[in-house]
Amino acid sequence: MTSQENQAVYARRMHRVLEYIDLHLDQVLELNTLAEVAHFSAFHFHRLFSAWMGETFGDYLRRRRLEIAALRLVTQPAIPVLEIALSVGFGSAEAFARAFKTRFGCTATEWRQGQADRWASRLEASNNKPSGQDSKPGQLHGKQDQETDQRLEHHGNSRPATKEIPMKVKVIERQPAKIAYLRYIGLYGPPISEFWIDTVSPWMETNNLFGRPRYGISHNDPAITSSEQCRYDAGVEVPSDFVASGQSFITTVPGGSYAVTRYVGNGRDIGDSWTRLLRDWLPASGMQLDARPFFEYYPTDAACDPQTGTFECDLCIPVVPL
User: Fold this and answer.
1) Rounded to whole angstroms, how far apart are CA atoms 32 and 46?
2) Nearest C-alpha neighbor of 18 from the set 258, 166, 181
3) E strand or H helix at 116, and its extent?
4) pLDDT tens digit sequence for 214-252
5) Does the model's pTM come out above 0.90?
6) Do strands 256-265 and 170-174 pair parallel, antiparallel, or not at all (unpaired)?
7) 255, 311 in Cβ contact below 8 A?
């Protein structure tokens, strides 16, 4: 194999490791087990993981557990803090409390209330701003929050004032879907649109993948994870016999129950749509999130106007009964 092909093999194996970690956060994760998942020598796996990820396995696992916990604290308001701590692999309330305060500078309870207040203030500010002006959420935790404010946008960096209308949400059963994807790491927002246009579209054309359903999978909450560590996968449904090549990877989008709402716009307010789905609809629905990822689903008939930048997609969150 060429050097580039060898690098692609390494990347695919490490992607399998990251998927395995996300699916087993509530369990004891040993380096030997992850080395087996990656089909690498256990003796060198720790060094390999650190070199590839830019942080040690222990640091990555702690960060990922805390980020998922921070998200669940807000999106599962009825779940006790201890239960959330256990669901991401912390063995005691004390250990979780220490780690959480070190990472976020506040207690889990303060975070839960503060982020709920932030969601409310974001949408109130957005709805009350005169047209043409950007809206900014209020400060919550000083300097750290200034960076968070810059990361809250998902596909844009300004939002016109909009009249809030009831959100139409339906819960559907989805079948598992095999996808091929390219990964983007960095700031969410306009760079993701550029990634689709400059990188994903040429790859789709080369592999004859146009005309198939597409997926945009966000693995991180940009209000929690620093921008340089945010992961986003741009994927396309592929046949069962499709073989990944080059810088592409293969995974399966899990099936099951999803709450779905249709988004139509130019992307500037898509972050608000995600917020309303999680803040307004979810707590009143009798449902809660599980460990499957959120994603944007672009069916083959989804409209897109290149002149105005307006597009449509389904925002999908994984749900199970409370």
Assistant:
1) 9
2) 181
3) helix 108-128
4) 999 988 888 788 888 999 999 999 999 998 887 899 999
5) no
6) antiparallel
7) no
